[in-house]
Amino acid sequence: MAQPPTDRTERPSGDRPRFARRGILLGRTDLAQPNWPQLFAQADLNVMGVHHATAQEFIDYAASPTGSDVLRRFEQRGVAIEFEHHIMNELLPRRLFKDAPEMFRVNEKGERSNDKNLCCSSDLAIRTIRDNAETLARSLPKRTGRYFFWPDDAANWCRCPKCRDLTASDQNLVLANAILAGVRQFDPDATACCLAYAQTLPVPRSVKPAEGIFLEYAPIRRSYERPFNDPDCSQNRKHVEQLMPLLSFFGTKGAQVCEYWLDASRHSKWKRPSKKLPDVSACLEADMVFYAECGFESVTTFGCYLDPDYWRMYGPPPIAEYGRAARGV
């Protein structure tokens, strides 16, 4: 069985929780369920990740009477608000392709395309992303100093002559470094995630993280029928084998797990009506123990499709169970 890295940070003990930051990512329709703030407080969760489609959608929601009231009720219960989503359309607007196609990736056919991500070898693209990251950071209505501006979802990267030798993970880290540089133009102490997910789970080969980059690890293709580090589960064993080098490469300072235990959207294959969440009790506690031993400081899970329709069909999701496992005390 793979072991956690030996250079991890010290984990909480005694009556201290396993993870200093414990949260759930919710979409806009999920927030229409009125008792989320109370459930977070009862489960002793202290971070709510807003998973709106765009940063502007979140900004507009927070400015609306409904949204401002919802977010206020979270904060009254000691829950910090963060924004997490794939927002390359805002960092590198696709409308710029007409005048500056060199900022956009070369696809597998050798053609410039504005469909996904960027050309990481374009100085203009990097400057544009940096400046737009600063603008977005300034515009967000709620801030914790941790920024989660993700690349396009499970998308391909650039294959131009200059980028061709850079892996997807390398290009992802180039992007993360540019985002960090941008948000630090607004907040000098800011940190930014590098999302290890789908194509970017392998360790970068040619690019190093800037000081202030932390790992966000999202094992979307794992199995939930067995604990994450079960050596007899080949699907999960591959993920563990990738995770250990990532922790050695990025370190554990600020590191965050972004899991899918409560993600009805994933367990429904992103199709509505939502299916009931599977029973993940066989892996939840074991997974939390493992991630804590690895040195992760934060744990989150997607909770998408846990909207009023889900509650009407299936009743409350297992928020309390998740909170107990995340605290571990």
Report what the structure shows.
- The structure is a single chain.
- The protein has 329 residues and is of the alpha/beta class.
- The chain has a single domain, classed as Alpha-Beta Barrel (TIM Barrel).
- The chain is 36% helix and 13% strand.
- The protein has helices at 36-42, 55-63, 65-76, 88-91, 123-139, 168-184, 234-250, 264-267, 281-294, 308-314, 319-327; strands spanning 21-26, 47-50, 80-86, 146-150, 191-197, 213-218, 256-259, 298-302.
- An eight-stranded parallel beta barrel has the order 1-2-3-4-5-6-7-8, surrounded by four helices.
- The longest helix is centred in the middle third of the chain and has 17 residues, at 123-139.
Report how far the terminal alpha carbons are from each other: 26 Å
State the name of the first-level CATH class: Alpha Beta
CATH superfamily: Glycosidases
- The radius of gyration is 19 Å
Q: What percentage of residues falls in helices of 4 or more residues?
A: 25-40%
Going by helix content, strand content and strand pairing, the class is alpha/beta
Average the pLDDT over all residues and give the rounded result. 95
* Total of helices: 11
The strand count comes to 8
CATH architecture: Alpha-Beta Barrel
Shape from CA axes? globular
Work out the strand percent: 5-15%
Might you state the CATH topology name?
TIM Barrel
Low-confidence stretches: 5-13
